[in-house]
Amino acid sequence: MKIYQIDAFTKEPFNGNSAGVTFGNGITDDIKRKIAKEMNLAETAFLSKSDKADFRLQWFTPSIEVELCGHATIASLHFLKEHSLIKNGETITFDTKSGILKCKMENDRYFMQIPLYKMQKYSGERDSILSALGISENILAKEIPWVLLENTNMYVCIKSLNELKNVSPNFKELKKISERNNKIGGFALFTTETIEKDNFTHCRYFVPYWGIDEDPVTGSVNGPLLPVLKYLGLITDEQMYNGLTFEQGDFMERSGRVTAKFFPQENELYISGDAVTVIKGEIIF
């Protein structure tokens, strides 16, 4: 079986977020999990035949199958391009645990549909979360509430880039919070102060509950961040429709950029990014 390691949300090798990608026809989910464990990346994606879409797409961490993974989907599109199975201007569909997702390639850039999640302001166990994150109230952006999505990701606005950089969580405590409250799975901290002036936010994402202390660049977090910003009154409808670019991974030396855009007529949210192959190999078993 051919398997690639692909860096997503970047044009530069050794940046962005790495994913394994391979074809998964004829192998069991248990074997897929073992392959993902062998690859030892945040996620490994498996493409196989589907009666409902162009491909079935599954994402496995080294321990479990997950419902959605942005960077491994972008990597999968690049993998299909490398195998001449998708062309510029072409739209394809993936049958996933999150439903049928539309994706496409335009000008060698990859686009992925992201589900729209319900959201609400959160004011629960703030003290224990702040303690686990290793931060205090005075580094939070004033008067901007926390937002919790139905997919269990929580968004917390930090007032400056430097203070976001210096956040050093207690991952064991964060995991305990998620274990006792299954409505909170991941912690996305963001600021509207950025490294590059044309970008809108810089984000860090902590998700020890799913075995990843900090993820370098997360499409499934940066995509929903766009409607979160609108919900918080930080952006306009026009900015949503034109699209915004978000930063992540720079403090991990894995710089990545994710663009998110909302299409109101279709009521669809998309992320887009680049990708580059860094390893091509074979799995033999």
Short overview:
The protein is built from 7 helices and 18 strands. It has 285 residues and is α+β, with helices and mostly antiparallel strands.
Can you tell me about this structure?
There is one protein chain. By secondary structure, the protein is α+β, with helices and mostly antiparallel strands. The chain has two domains: 2-115 and 272-282, Diaminopimelate Epimerase, Chain A, domain 1; 119-266, Diaminopimelate Epimerase, Chain A, domain 1 (Roll), CATH 3.10.310. Helices cover 23% and strands 37% of the residues. It has helices at residues 29-39, 70-82, 126-133, 161-165, 171-180, 219-231, 237-242; strands at residues 2-8, 17-23, 43-48, 55-60, 65-66, 91-96, 99-106, 109-114, 119-122, 146-149, 153-157, 186-191, 201-207, 212-215, 244-248, 256-263, 268-273, 275-282. The longest helix has 13 residues, at 70-82. The termini are close together. The relative contact order is 0.18.
Query: Please, what is the average pLDDT?
Result: 97
Question: Main β-sheet, in a few words?
Answer: 18 strands, mixed
What name does CATH use for the topology of the largest domain?
Diaminopimelate Epimerase, Chain A, domain 1
CATH homologous superfamily identity of the largest domain: Diaminopimelate Epimerase, Chain A, domain 1
Q: State the domain count.
A: 2
**How many strand segments?**
18
Q: Tell me roughly what share of residues is in helical segments.
A: 10-25%
Helix-strand pattern: EEHEEEHEEEEHEEHHEEEHHEEEE
CATH class of the largest domain: Alpha Beta
Structure class: alpha+beta
Q: Terminal Cα separation, in Å? A: 9 Å
List the uncertain runs.
Answer: none
